[in-house]
């Protein structure tokens, strides 16, 4: 409590009150705004995720996502070709080793 001296020598006390209503109102407004922003961001992320899916035809896919998808497909094809080539080369090496072993053991 604060005390103040009023003219005439009388001491008056000023009461201090906590505004529970204002605190409650500010909390409710904060929660409303927070949930609104949360749902807007969540909606925008879901729309963005749908737009980035190249197989989803309901929303047009941005050009950069289409190019990245094509690059991914081409790299997957290239990996398959490399695997086939590696298997072919390893097969040749295995046959040469087998020929060398038979030649070595023939002595």
Task: Name the features.
single chain, 107 residues, mainly alpha, 2 strands
Describe the structure.
It holds the Pfam family MscL. Keywords: Membrane, Transmembrane, Transmembrane helix. This is Mechanosensitive ion channel protein MscL. The chain crosses the membrane at residues 23-41. With 107 residues, this protein is mainly alpha-helical. It has one domain (23-105). Helix content is 71%, strand content 9%. It is built from 2 helices and 2 strands. It has helices at 20-52, 63-105; strands spanning 2-6, 10-14. A two-stranded antiparallel ribbon has the order 1-2. A hairpin with a 3-residue loop joins strand 1 (2-6) and strand 2.
Question: Short summary of the structure?
Answer:
It comes from Cyclobacterium amurskyense. The chain has 107 residues and is mainly alpha-helical.
How many structural domains?
1
Number of strands: 2
Largest sheet: 2 strands, antiparallel
Evaluate the radius of gyration: 39 Å
Distance between the termini: 112 Å
Element string (H = helix, E = strand) = EEHH
* Helical percentage: over 70%
Task: Classify the beta-strand content into a percent band.
Answer: 5-15%
Question: Class by helix and strand content?
Answer: mainly alpha
Keywords: Membrane, Transmembrane, Transmembrane helix
Pfam families: MscL
Transmembrane segments: 23-41
Organism: Cyclobacterium amurskyense
């Amino acid at each position: 409590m604060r005390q103040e001296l009023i003219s005439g020598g009388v001491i008056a006390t000023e009461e201090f009150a906590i505004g529970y209503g204002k605190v409650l109102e500010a909390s409710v407004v904060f929660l409303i705004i927070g949930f609104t922003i949360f749902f807007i961001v969540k909606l925008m992320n879901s729309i963005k995720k749908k737009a980035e899916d190249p197989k989803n035809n309901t929303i047009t896919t941005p050009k950069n996502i289409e190019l990245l998808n094509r690059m991914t497909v081409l790299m997957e094809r290239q990996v398959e070709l490399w695997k086939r080539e590696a298997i072919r080369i390893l097969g040749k090496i295995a046959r040469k080793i087998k020929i060398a072993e038979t030649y070595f053991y023939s002595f």
